[in-house]
Amino acid sequence: MLLNYLFTVFECSDSTSELFVSEENMNRADENCRTPLMYAVSSGWSHVVEFLLERGVDTSTVDERQTTALMQAASLGLPTIVRLLLDAAADVNAVCMVSIVYLRTVWL
Asked: % helix / strand / coil in the chain, to the nearest 5?
């Protein structure tokens, strides 16, 4: 379901290899500045998050609300995904104050 959505949003065919074959596609943002990583986080799909992180996806990208994937995971209460992102060196000092306060208070 998520992959079908990502194929549509990022205009790829029905092939995961095409979607994730290049760094450009892995980090490509839609019209709301959301990346495949952000969609996987907001869907709670830790295995997809892990798949993307293993391929070196950028964890510092911000969406239209200036939030990162780590901020989204923390605000959604997804400890497994928060840990995956922290292990991948996601920046805990990013700029969205609401999320960073929550992240530091609850997760660190």
From this structure: 55, 0, 45
